[in-house]
Each structure stands twice: as structure tokens, then as C-alpha cells.
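Researcher: I'm preparing a figure for a lab meeting and need a structural model of a single chain. I don't have an experimental structure, so a prediction will have to do for now. The sequence is pasted below. Please return the structure as C-alpha cells so I can convert it later.
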Amino acid sequence: MSKHIYLDHNATTPLLPEVADAIHEASLRYTANPGSQHEPGRLARRALEAARLRVGELLGARMAGMAADRVIFTSGGTEAANLALFGLLGSPASAGQPRRAGTTPHLLTSKIEHPCILETAGQLSNCEIEHLDVNTHGVVDLEQFCRQLRSDTRLVSVMLANNETGVLQPIAEMAALCAEQNVAMHSDAAQMVGKLPVDFTDLNLSAMSIAAHKFYGPLGIGALVVRHDLPLQPTLFGGHQQAGLRPGTETVALAIGMQTALDIWHRNAAESVERIRQLRDQFEQTITTDLPTVEIIGSGATRLPNTSNLSFVGMNRQALLMALDQVGVACSSGSACASGSSELSPVLLAMGLKKSVIEGSIRFSLGVTTTAAEIEAACRRILGVCQRLR
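Model: Understood. Here is the structure written out cell by cell.
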């Protein structure tokens, strides 16, 4: 088998060696529980809080003064999203309880959200939930949003960038409209952080969830950034850690790993973004020049620089995926959380695309470790597979 070319960075990114070194060093140095009162515990606590402070600063949160925002460490992006929805709208324990007249919270989200939002929302039977449409480019309809945003809306949750198409959403505009009506705005930023700059304060968000493994950090840690004045209820119980909002002993080494990964990305952001964008554009041009029937999904909107969702119209995506894997090209047919599903992508269905386009769609996502030589080789392998399958 040929050496695999990894083009699935939206699913997860490889741990950078510098991040691995930082985690290893922290694991050996901070061996005490950061909640303990003795000197080793206090040392671990100081390291943990330094990492928390730096993560917040890099994400554009206000981390100083009486009105400091909060960075709550979680086990990953899914838990962070769950904490945002359940913590602001009601815990899972409230699901199925009878509604009281006039007290039903209204949640507004989109049809293209990650399952960590849509499935969590589905558990909130004590809420009235409405879903926003998107246009054929995969962008939320702002006019519809204005019509559906109500005075009794408790929360709006719309992602910054879509994990399947890479299409960016008008979050700043939506957050401004929410602020005018005193409505909380949460955004799942898991796919955006580490690919484009994200500033929590400039976006005017109330809450934002992230996952370290999406930006070359460790698996097993994420965070929910919460505005200083936003009331949040815990969804886990059994400890006082993180002001009681997310109990459980924090893992200092993983927090330092997340911080290190963010530091590295910000240090190289300008160069990395442009280099990856050029590689993505080169990739798409090569494929579509040789196969003019291939459609670039979401190309009419602003996209993440690393994401290319191509539809090989007339071909079966599952057969194509297996054939590409055999020749050493790692890619996907959508969210890794739905890996192996034969159902058509809900994201692409929401965009109103033809069934033939959806059935042939494959997501390729590049990263900082992707090279020009790999893109050239990937194009040769993809075109060769398409010729054989046709």
C-alpha cells in the first residue's frame, strides 16, 4: 500500500511534537491534584490557571478585572456544547417534565449543526426548538433569522464554520441582533479555531465551545468560554472544581497541551492560513480541470482555507472512499461522528442539493502538516481511482 496522505484534518489533527513534549513534561512535573492545599497541589494549580488564562486570551476572551470571562475545561467539544445547551436551558434531568405555561424556553439553531448540538437539543423536551434554514451555499438565512428571533428566545446556537463544507456563518451579525434583544448566543467554534482567527469578544458571543484535538492539541480536552455575566448551571455533580460548573479533577497536562497548541497556531497563523489556502485551491483546480463534472460544494460562500467538499457526481461516495483508502488517501464523507453511515448528509440535504450531488460528495481537509508534494500525489491517486471506477 502507498504511504497514506492524511486529508481528514476536520475529523482530528495530528498531535504536534512540541505539544507532545509539553504534555510529557507537565505530566512529570505536576503530579499532584490541583485541588490539594499542599505545595505540590498549589504548584499544579498555578500551572493550570496559567494555562486557562492563556487559552482565554488567545481566544479573545476578557480575562482580567471584575468582569472577566470564564474558561471552563471539559473533556472535549461535545461536552462543552452539552454544557452550553443544558447549562443555559435546562439539564437532561428536566427532559420529559411537564411544561408550565409561559415558561418554555425558546432555542434557535440551524439545520447544519454538528450532532453535538442537534442531538443535545433533541434531549431538551422542555424547550421549544426551531431550526434555521440555509441557502444553497450552506449559509444561514439572516432574514429568516430576524423573523424567527423572538423576545422570549432564550438561546441561539449556530456554528462558526461547518465541519463538512467549511462554510463560515454570519455569527457576528447574528450575535449583534441577539445582543439587541438580550438573547444569549452560543457558537460551536470547534472547526474554526486553529484554522482562522477567532475573537470571542469581537464576535460578541455569550458562549463558545472548542476542542483541542481540532487544532493539533491533545484528545480528551475542550473548553467552554462563557461571558462573565451569563448564568450557567452545572450538568455534572460531585465536586467544587471550576466554580462547581464542571466538577472533576482537572488534568493539568492536557490543559497545558491545549494552551501550547493554541500558542503555536497563533505564532504561525498568517503564514499557515495562506499556504493551506493555496494548497486547497491547487487541489481543487487540478481535480476539476481533469474531471469537469466534479462540483465544489459551498464554493459560492466564504470557506475555511483548508476544507474542500467535492462531489464526484455519478459516483458512489462509499465505494470511492474505500478505493481512496486502498491507494493511501485518507478522507471522509462527512462528520466523523457519523462515520460509516449510509444515510445522506443532513448538512447537504439542508442546502437543497440534488441527490446525485450528495451521493458523490467527499470531504478533503488539509492541515499544517500537509505538503505540496502530498497534494500532487493525492491528486494523481484520486484521478486514477476515478478513472478505474468509471
